[in-house]
Specification:
By secondary structure, the protein is mainly β. It has one helix at residues 20-29, and strands spanning 9-11, 17-19, 32-47, 51-64, 67-82, 85-95. Strands 2-1-6-5-4-3 form a six-stranded mixed sheet, covered by helices on one side.
């Protein structure tokens, strides 16, 4: 089986999965309006010289569906080296619950 690393899969914290084309179109059309994405921490784990897993937490501010949202996420990214450049192949995020009052 031949793997195609140039195809991004973006899995949102609400379990919606989009291809690279779907995600870019959603941003272009205004479905998602990202205001800020601040990374609290990141850990990079290389696997050989052509693959790396990045994980950590971040805070995202965006507008979607007419609502302003701010969430804290735990994320995992997969990067592959292709043609001498690192390219994201996967984003997976899980919402970190708000602290109990």
């Amino acid at each position: 089986m031949k793997l195609e690393w140039n195809r991004l899969t973006w899995t949102h914290s609400n379990a919606v999965v989009e291809t690279k084309a779907e995600f870019i179109e959603a941003i272009r059309s205004g479905k998602y309006r990202y205001k800020a994405m601040t990374f609290d921490d990141r850990r990079v784990r290389p696997h050989g010289d052509s693959t790396a897993v990045v994980s950590g937490t971040c805070r995202v501010q965006l507008t979607t569906g007419g609502r302003d949202i701010e969430v804290k996420l735990r994320f995992t990214e997969l990067y592959v080296r292709q043609g001498g450049a690192w390219k994201m192949a996967l984003w997976q995020s899980t919402r970190v619950p708000d602290p109990a009052p």
